[in-house]
Amino acid sequence: MIILGPVAVADNLVIGKGNDLPWHLPEDLKHFKELTLGKTVVMGRKTYESIVARLNKPLPGRKNVVITRQAGYLVPEGVLVFDSLESCFKALTGEDVYIIGGAEIFKLALPTAQMMYVTQVHGDYEGDAFFPEIDWSQWQKLEEDKHEKFSFVKYKRK
Fold first, then answer.
1. What is the pLDDT of residues 29-42, one digit of tens each?
2. 138 membership: H or E segment, kind and range
3. C or N: which end of the chain has fewer Cβ atoms within 10 Å?
């Protein structure tokens, strides 16, 4: 199954600024870890590089998959690299695949995603990376866990 997220999205659809998160929400990072630990996470090169810059390594306890058009892109052993989302999905058939960013990868994966985990960050933020516009008539809200500054929301495609 193709799962969009978990992704934190501001009210104005901002998801990033300067290849980083424009907010600090420890609860969201914990939620992200709970949902993705032991799973396959697919990301674009810039998202991968921002994670490595923060952690000095790929996301631990997960199968890290990077989508890049850069030929010969070097990654540590165990990290998979594909030149397209299509080739990635073909190779990972039968696995639950969590799409974790960035903006271009979310946009490309949206048409095939069956589930979405969205942390709706309340408020507008400055940023340079945006979540794609969603046709909400195609999605059903399954769960919502409201907090003061954000809400965890799970959606399923209708």
1. 999 999 999 999 99
2. none
3. C
